[in-house]
Amino acid sequence: MEDAGDQKLAVQPNSQPITPTTEAYAVWQQAFRFFNDRLFQGKLTDSVITLTWHTRALGYFCPSAFEDRDGGSAHEIAMNPSWFEAYGDASALSIFVHEMCHQWRHDHGALNRKGGKGAGGYHDSVWADRMEALGLMPSNTGKPRGRRLGFRMSHYIIEGGAFDRACREFLADGHFIDWRFGIVRRPPSPIVTGAAEAPAKSPKNTRTKFVCPVCDLRAWARSSARLSCIDCEKPLSAS
């Protein structure tokens, strides 16, 4: 005869299997609520958290990026899973809080000297002061003595600071970033801990040179292009 406890454990109606999608996003929702409580006094509203392969960003914040059918809006915080393995969980979480700080700046930060909140993408002193208070030092190089303000900004974790302590608690509770992009990228050299953006990459030249066989006229276009020389009435050949 089963006792009440055994029967309760055996019956689990409407249970759903845990999927990779659920696991991949659940840790970020847990992180948002945890760091919102520990570092932002619960003031931040829930954002839509996405995973993105933006080639030049480790993460970003986009205000009011989503809208529901009733006209309600929500901010977006995006994280790039291509870099999770290279930077490690603590640094990836610091990037996440970096973007949460942008949300705080947008919704709760004080106005600047000009009565506004700065140009889009600019890391101003209001944001930088809040970052430092949270234990993340703004730095355009990701190292000490870097610039605190600017458009392309990184940061480094202040040892023993508020974020460092909170992050250790979060990870010690068994939270970890389980799903990440399968192709591991190498971090920039030297490694920038908690960088807010990936280093810019030089664009590759994907154009093909075409040459007229008569007058040697030259042109550059994609390899599938069909070009002709008007003067010689000859098709240009790829070289």
SSE arrangement:
Layout: H1 4-10, H2 20-39, E1 48-51, E2 59-67, E3 73-79, H3 84-87, H4 89-108, H5 125-134, E4 136-139, E5 154-157, H6 162-172, E6 208-211, E7 218-221, E8 228-229, E9 234-235, E10 237-238
Parallel strand pairs: 1-3
Antiparallel strand pairs: 2-3, 4-5, 6-7, 6-10, 8-9
Helix pairs in contact: 2-4, 2-6, 4-5, 4-6
Structural write-up:
Helix 2 (20-39) crosses helix 4 (89-108). It is elongated and about 75 Å long. Residues 1-12 and 189-204 have low confidence and may be disordered. Helices cover 30% and strands 18% of the residues. The chain has 2 domains: 16-172, no CATH class; 208-238, no CATH class. It is an alpha+beta fold and 239 residues long. The chain has helices spanning 4-10, 20-39, 84-87, 89-108, 125-134, 162-172; strands at residues 48-51, 59-67, 73-79, 136-139, 154-157, 208-211, 218-221, 228-229, 234-235, 237-238. It has a 3-stranded mixed β-sheet with strand order 1-3-2. A 3-stranded antiparallel β-sheet has the order 7-6-10, with no helix packed on it. Strands 4-5 form a two-stranded antiparallel ribbon. The protein is built from 6 helices and 10 strands; from the N terminus they run ααβββαααββαβββββ.
Overview in brief:
With 239 residues, this protein is α+β, with helices and mostly antiparallel strands.
